[in-house]
Each structure stands twice: as structure tokens, then as C-alpha cells.
């Protein structure tokens, strides 16, 4: 084989790898402690094959989300066997558990763990089955290595159980401080519902983790110019599918700063019910309450933009 053929084969293999991509969204209960975030980010930068394509911090919620991308490799019969995301997520989780104590944490967004949620999405030619494979592998390692109870959801769960159902069973949505904040750990240390991985008891400093796999979900938040969180919650319920509003939309009404509240939305089928529908519905309901709303915002890029940024960062060697 001459050098040109070898180079072409290498390029072809690289192209195939980069079309079989997985995205991981890692939600950590911290955004005010820069030293902790620096430690977490240094952990992932040890592996040049995993790219942080986006980071979304919210100081009011005291929560950060990292959007990570890498490839998934397969064996000779097409079964997934390796993704750099696995070790990258584990390294970030280890850094988070070392740097953050949930008992000392507070914020205006629900959470049940230091590493609160990890979700895997397929990108490019990758499949949901591959995302679920990685979610289950990471869940087993986090449960065993860090002794954290882990609940699987979506395609990673044996019966496809939804994230919001599990959260509701565990009291995720109930504020435990000042009526609109979440602080420390106030749940029972022995869990009412057994986890899929890890122990049945909770370490108060670490809490529990949710880990799942599902098709792409968009997150879109709409600020309301009011401090009345009860109105925000009422509007949120009426916008959501659960409250008889927009199908495939899940919502939370939350305090966001000193003079605003916010409708935080998950669009489970963003190509069917998109941000414009949500914005208009929130605006209509807010007007009925005599309130103004601001233009909403996405908290992450689209899948197409994420792939584009990944390819650019990989090719430039700046990952």
C-alpha cells in the first residue's frame, strides 16, 4: 500500500467517525464558584477527542450545562464499543464531586444532585440505541465508582420511563427554601424508589444523578416582567402539555433575579412545536394577567450548529 492510499484510508475512516457523533449535555449544580468550574473544565480538556462546544451558566439558578461532542466507534459487526465521551464525562463528574458539596448549594432551579442530569443525544448518522448504550455505561460507572444513586430515563431505561415522571416521584419540583428556592439536601437518605445503578442510600454532599438518552430536545426560556412566581407557575402549567397546553412541551415557572420570573421550557419535539409557538402562548397568557414578557432565548445551539462547531474545533486542533 503506498502512502497516498494509506492517507486516503485514514481520511475516510476519520470522515466515518465524525459522522457517527454523540452529544452529551451535562448539568452540574454550580455556576457561582469559578474555581470549581475551572477544575471541571480542566478535567475534560485532557482528552482532545472530546470537545466542549457550548457552556451555559446561570448564576440565579446556580447551575451550569456543558455540551460535549465526540465520536462513537464500533466493532466489526457494527456494535458500539468506545466513545471518548465516556472517560471525559467520568473525569468531569469526579472533579464536580470533589469541588462541590450539595449541602452548601442553593439556587432558584430544582436539582437533586451535584451531577444533576446527564443526557446523551445522537448526532449525524449515530442512533438513539448508541446514545442509550453510552448512557447505561456511564450510569453504571458513576453508580459504582462514586457511590451515587443513578436513575435511568428515556431510551436508557428498560421501559423508556420519562425524566419528568422520575423527578416527580423523587420530589424534584418541590422548593425546600423560601418557597421558591432549592437548598441543601432535605429528602430522605433512603430513597423511596430504588435506583437503576448505585446504592439505595444518598450521600447528602453528592445527592443523586439522572442519566438518560433521547432524541434532540430544545430548551427555551421566556422571561416575564414580574416577581410573582405564583403567576409564573400558573402560566407555565397552562403552556405545558401536562396542563392541557402545547403538546410535547414541558415547563417550569421559576424566580430569575430580583425583578423577573421565567418560564423555562423543554421542547420535546422542537420540529413540531417550536419556540415561536411557545413564545406566542406565553405572551398571550401573560397579557391576560396584565404582564409583559421579553423575547425568549435558547440555552443551546441547534444540532446542526453543534456538529458544525465540533468539526471546526476538531480540524483546528483547539478542542
TrEMBL record:
What domain of life does the native source organism fall in? Eukaryota
Q: Which Pfam families match?
A: FTCD_N
GO terms (molecular function) for this protein are: folic acid binding; glutamate formimidoyltransferase activity
Question: Where's the Formiminotransferase N-terminal subdomain domain?
Answer: 20-215
Name the Enzyme Commission number(s) assigned to this protein: 2.1.2.5
Q: Which residues form the Formiminotransferase C-terminal subdomain domain?
A: 220-310
The alphabetized UniProt keywords are: Transferase
Q: Which InterPro entries match?
A: Formiminotransferase_C, Formiminotransferase_C_sf, Formiminotransferase_N, Formiminotransferase_N_sf, FormiminoTrfase_cat_dom_sf, FTCD
Q: Does the keyword Cytoplasm apply?
A: no
Group of enzyme by EC: transferase
Q: What is this protein called?
A: glutamate formimidoyltransferase
Native source species: Olea europaea subsp. europaea
Amino acid at each position: 500500500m503506498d502512502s497516498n492510499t494509506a492517507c486516503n484510508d485514514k481520511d475516510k475512516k476519520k470522515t466515518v467517525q465524525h459522522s457517527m457523533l454523540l452529544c452529551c449535555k451535562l448539568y452540574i449544580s454550580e455556576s457561582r464558584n469559578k474555581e470549581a468550574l475551572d477544575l471541571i473544565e480542566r478535567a475534560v480538556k485532557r482528552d482532545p477527542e472530546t470537545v466542549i462546544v457550548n457552556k451555559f451558566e446561570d448564576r440565579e439558578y446556580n447551575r451550569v450545562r456543558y455540551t460535549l461532542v465526540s465520536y462513537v466507534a464500533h466493532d466489526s459487526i457494527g456494535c458500539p464499543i468506545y466513545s471518548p465521551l465516556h472517560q471525559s464525562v467520568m473525569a468531569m463528574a469526579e472533579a464536580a464531586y470533589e469541588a462541590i458539596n450539595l449541602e452548601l448549594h442553593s439556587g432558584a432551579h430544582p436539582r437533586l444532585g451535584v451531577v444533576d442530569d446527564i443526557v446523551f443525544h445522537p448526532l449525524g448518522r449515530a442512533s438513539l440505541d448508541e446514545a442509550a448504550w453510552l448512557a447505561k455505561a456511564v450510569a453504571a460507572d458513576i453508580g459504582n465508582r462514586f457511590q451515587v444513586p443513578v436513575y435511568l430515563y428515556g431510551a436508557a431505561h428498560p421501559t423508556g420511563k420519562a425524566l419528568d415522571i422520575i423527578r416527580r416521584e423523587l420530589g424534584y419540583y418541590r422548593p425546600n427554601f423560601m418557597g421558591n428556592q432549592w437548598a441543601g439536601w432535605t429528602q430522605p437518605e433512603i430513597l423511596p424508589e430504588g435506583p437503576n445503578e448505585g446504592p439505595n442510600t444518598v450521600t447528602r454532599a453528592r445527592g443523586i444523578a439522572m442519566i438518560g438518552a433521547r432524541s434532540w430536545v430544545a430548551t427555551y426560556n421566556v422571561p416575564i416582567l414580574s416577581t410573582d412566581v405564583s403567576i409564573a407557575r400558573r402560566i407555565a402549567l397552562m403552556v405545558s402539555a401536562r396542563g392541557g397546553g402545547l403538546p410535547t412541551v414541558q415547563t417550569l415557572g421559576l424566580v430569575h433575579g430580583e425583578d423577573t420570573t421565567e418560564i423555562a421550557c423543554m421542547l420535546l419535539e422542537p420540529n413540531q412545536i417550536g419556540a415561536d409557538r411557545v413564545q406566542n402562548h406565553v405572551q398571550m397568557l401573560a397579557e391576560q394577567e396584565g404582564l409583559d414578557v421579553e423575547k425568549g432565548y435558547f440555552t443551546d445551539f441547534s444540532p446542526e450548529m453543534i456538529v458544525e462547531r465540533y468539526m471546526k474545533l476538531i480540524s483546528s486542533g483547539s478542542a
